[in-house]
Automatic annotation (TrEMBL):
It comes from the Bacteria. The keyword Signal applies. Belongs to the CpxP/Spy family. It comes from Edwardsiella hoshinae. Keywords: Periplasm, Signal. The keyword Signal applies. Residues 1-22 form the signal peptide. This is Spheroplast protein Y.
Length: 178
């Protein structure tokens, strides 16, 4: 069950980060990609994996784009995705997450560990995380709904590839732990 939960959370995060990064892409689509015929587009050049913001140091494993990697979006789609993403972030402000983190830190650094308080904090935090995960999935569904059938097919192929990579990594991890 933990593996399934971890996989669901990982895919949700990957898709969410990808949607967020893709929504901020402002380059117009080019008819044949980036000029080399691979259809990747200017912002998807293999040398451009580092995005501004949170992913600046490493990008992510999927070229910084998550579910929309390699998808040619119209300017209208990009604007709609940006609007959806902004609505999501307005509804889920960062200060609440920081408050949860500070409360956890206080429990860890207190003179005496209060297990009951720690459990209560974890339960409350998990509820918030679950609620945010559901809302993120709704946001991703809205974004997915904006795509054309061909774009949806590419997103589904990208997702299957990511699942396969995750399964292979999990298999290698399990083998190395034995």
């Amino acid at each position: 069950m933990r593996k399934l939960t971890a996989m669901i959370l990982a895919s949700t995060l990957a898709l969410g980060v990808g949607a967020a990064n893709a929504a901020e892409t402002t380059a117009a689509p080019v008819a044949n990609g980036n000029g080399n015929g691979n259809g990747m587009g200017m912002m998807h050049h293999p040398d451009m994996n580092h995005q501004n913001g949170m992913m600046q140091k490493k990008g992510n494993r999927h070229g910084g784009m998550g579910m929309l990697a390699g998808i040619q979006l119209t300017p209208e789609q990009r604007q709609q995705i940006r609007d959806i993403r902004q609505q999501f972030h307005k509804a889920h402000p960062m200060p609440q997450m920081m408050d949860n983190f500070k409360q956890m830190q206080q429990l860890i650094t207190s003179d005496k560990f209060d297990e009951a308080a720690a459990r209560a904090h974890i339960e409350a935090n998990n509820k918030v995380r679950n609620d945010v995960a559901v809302e993120r999935m709704k946001m991703e569904h809205q974004i997915y709904s904006l795509l054309t059938p061909a774009q949806k097919q590419q997103v589904n192929q990208n997702f299957e590839k990511r699942v396969q990579v995750m399964m292979e990594r999990q298999g290698k991890l399990n083998q190395s732990q034995q």
